[in-house]
Protein 1
Amino acid sequence: MTTTPAPWGTGRMAPYAPTTTVPQYTPVIDPETQIAVIVDEHGRTVEMGAHGTSTNTSTPTNTGGGDGQNGGQNTPTDMDSMPANDQDQGTG
């Protein structure tokens, strides 16, 4: 009788690392400012750090035919884009 070997990944398995309890935070709307704030399980406001804004732009890049083609004009034969992501630092 032939036995099937265990899958290769099972030899790498181990128990999960011990965990800690994460406090429960709840987003609520401040009735005066109409802005979301985070409160802990005791109703205290929690500071979540600075949050900024970001913008995404995409700049096209071209590849051309090279020297001597198209009468000296470099007409693109392939086109793609390079994304950029600019982060602004928020103020608390």
Protein 2
Amino acid sequence: MPITAFLDIHVKAESLTEAPEMLHDTLLTTRAFDGCLGVDVLVDTEDPTHFVLVEQWVSLEHDAAYRTYRAGPGKSSLGPILSGTPVLTKFEIATDI
């Protein structure tokens, strides 16, 4: 079953000018990863340092493989520009509602 993952991040104010390019470069790999159906980047209208990445995955297994990759050899370069720990939340479609 497809899932949607929301990755809520905040970047340091002093990194705001470089953040879009760094996100773009990082998401090239994410979007090409097996099972990724797409990624949208939302920016908070009140706080330009606040982003939410909306990721669509074929399955929980594909998402898990991606998270394992990012925790190991595919570690992203975003760490130094983040102002806190990202928050990841995963959802699936409720078919019985």
Protein 3
Amino acid sequence: MIKIFRYLAIAEGYSFLLVLFVTMPLKYLGGIGMPNKIVGMAHGFLFLGYVVLAIVVAQILKWKFKDMIIVILMSVVPFGTFWMKDKYLNDGSEALEAA
């Protein structure tokens, strides 16, 4: 489950950056809205999956409530999911390896 969450965090982070730096300028500066609709919908699904899995992983790893909130909030900060993955999921602890 944690491995899936790692991959989902990376995918969600890239989709957020793609929406923010590619499709939004295309929509508002270039008048091309279709890429924003497609990538935006994919980003929305990834975001929802990220939040749900963050709650599940928080229970598996017995995170404090504050840590779970930080992990969830990192999904709305550019590059936040990459930082979160390094800080909370790559510490090499036994709990991560066992789950």
Protein 4
Amino acid sequence: MGHSQAEKAATRARVLRLASRKIRAEGVTRPGVADLMNEAGLTHGGFYKHFDSRDDLIAQAAAVALTEGTSKMERAARRNEQDARAGLIDAYLAKQHRDAPGTGCALVSLGASAGRGDQHFKEAYEQQVGTYLDLIAGLDDDADDARAEAMLTLSALVGAVLMSRAVADKGFSDELLETVAERLKQQGSQTSSGRA
């Protein structure tokens, strides 16, 4: 790859990272091309060197936002060597995650948009749900029930963060995160001890 091609690829990647944060924080309808390009230090006219349209940018930024979470989830599961599932739950339901939607899990911030989105958007969202389900199920020793437990866990994680961001009362928001985390960890302990 020549210097100018490498530069173009780096610029494109920078715009995509910026756009992926913006759509997680503000939604897919908010970021305008001019604002994004300005924030990236580029001119509006240069946009079409990198993307076919705003829809093309948003679709690619959504895919970046969705896949970015995989490594974060894997790191979270490794935080607690004795109980990887509890480590993942604690990291996902942390107040820091709630308070940073721009860098948080895109399943939370892009769910409604994916539901209204085109087939490609839905497929990207579905692929990430599947990746997370596999990761969570892989933390469970009981292969027979692991996928169902993973579905329940992931749904509770995403739902708790979504609601904790949406309510006005900070104390209630904290309570949502803490209660769901505690119940999910209790459920995991009961399930594990029931199989022992």
